[in-house]
Write a structure and sequence with these properties.
about 400 residues, 3 domains, alpha+beta, Neuraminidase
């Protein structure tokens, strides 16, 4: 008798005479819920339900019904592989089904069923909500990584790949998958024109490329600014720098503005600095306090307290090294530059980075008046947040 009543309910769901809200009310009765749950263990009946768009919509609209679906491997496999999954709102089935999004997608059985269905995975990959649930679950991502169908679906969706890239759990599972290939990595589009000796910085929303030169001639130095949205497919030309520059630096400040220091304008080395306020793809550039002396081919890094360290580089000539390091404290467009202890030796075209450990690492670069001699030396430093004291330690 109970199963007969459950079959009648299935008929009513398929016919549309029992809606999702009505089904939700019916299943509040524990007896009717037990009958419905038993029905979900019957592969033939579940497949019949999954073959009906009317039934899929009704079940998806009932949180209690979706909790029952999530608890049945038979039902999950049929629902996630249904040709009506997208039409019935796969996001509802997976993401909004009675608050089961995390629990459902974190289930290895459930995610394995989703991963095996191109229909289901394509819908999941297109949903930022669904992908956020997947990428934050190691179980779900392991299921994706084990399936070539799932990996291909994720790789084909910019929404899915952006979610993967933003999660350490997902990145590791994706890259370590035996189904992963280099072609799955979204390419960064080529710049609109050639560039060398440019500066670049990543804001929370864009990769920003500033200035540089196109050829070896001094007339090819540019002030062009290109911006690429993270995960985007094309560069946007933004507000140019007030003047052309190459061999300069660009540093992201704590408030999201961009600090540009020094560089060469094609004719002479410069000390000017600018700070750009970013709004969408527009940058409002304002003059800031200049460096104490002209400098190019230097390196700059933002310290943990928000100040900016400038180190190395040269002045008016290749044999005019800048031996002094600077720390700049920024307030509006005013920068208070203070001289600090210099790294050992002189160098330009090097890198300078703040490590998670709190150390500063200054690496490599060119030395000598002809700029042809590369250096393998490294310099480590510790700095004080309360003063301008910096301790440099060179490893020759």
């Amino acid at each position: 008798m109970p199963m007969l009543r459950a079959m009648r309910l299935l008929n009513a769901i398929e016919a549309g005479t029992t809606t999702g809200s009505q089904l939700q009310t019916l299943l509040q009765d524990s007896g009717r819920l037990a009958e419905f749950s038993a029905l979900l263990q019957m592969r033939g009946q579940v497949r019949r339900m999954a073959a009906s768009s009317t039934a899929m919509n009704a079940v998806a609209a009932s949180s209690t019904a979706m909790n029952a679906v999530a608890a049945s491997s038979v039902a999950r496999e049929a629902f996630f592989g249904s040709s009506f999954s997208v039409g019935a709102g796969l996001n509802t089935l997976i993401v909004s089904g009675g608050g089961t999004s995390d629990a459902t997608l974190a289930s290895l059985n459930t995610m394995s069923a989703v991963a095996a269905s191109s229909t289901a995975m394509n819908a999941v990959a297109a949903s930022s909500t669904a992908m956020n649930a997947v990428v934050n679950s190691s179980t779900a991502m392991n299921a994706v990584a084990a399936s070539s169908t799932a990996m291909n679906a994720v790789a084909a969706s910019s929404t899915a790949m952006n979610a993967v890239a933003a999660s350490s759990i997902a990145r590791s599972a994706f890259v370590d998958s035996t189904h992963a290939t280099s072609s799955m990595v979204p390419p960064i589009p080529q710049l609109p024109s050639a560039r060398a000796s440019q500066a670049s910085v990543a804001t929370p929303t864009h990769l920003v490329v500033i200035g540089g030169h196109e050829t070896s001639g001094s007339s090819s130095v540019r002030n062009t600014v290109y911006m690429l949205p993270h995960g985007g497919s094309s560069w946007v030309t933004s507000t140019p720098l007030p003047a052309v520059r190459r061999a300069h630096t660009a540093t992201l400040l704590p408030d999201g503005r961009i600090l540009v220091t020094g560089g060469h304008d094609g004719s002479s080395v410069r000390a000017e600095c600018w700070i750009g306020a970013v709004s969408g793809t527009t940058i409002t550039w304002a003059s800031a306090t200049s460096l104490p002396a002209v400098r190019r081919a230097h390196a700059a890094v933002r310290l943990s307290g928000g100040r900016v360290l400038v180190a190395g580089g040269v002045g008016t000539a290749d044999n005019d090294p800048r031996t002094q390091a600077l720390i700049g404290t920024v307030s509006g467009t005013t920068i208070t530059w203070q001289t600090v202890a210099a790294p050992h030796g002189t160098r330009g075209l090097h890198t300078c980075d703040l490590l998670p450990s709190g150390y500063i690492a200054l690496v490599g670069g060119s030395v000598g008046s002809d700029w042809t001699v590369g250096s393998s030396s490294t310099v480590a430093a510790l700095y004080s947040d309360n003063s301008t004291k910096v301790l440099w330690r060179q490893n020759p």
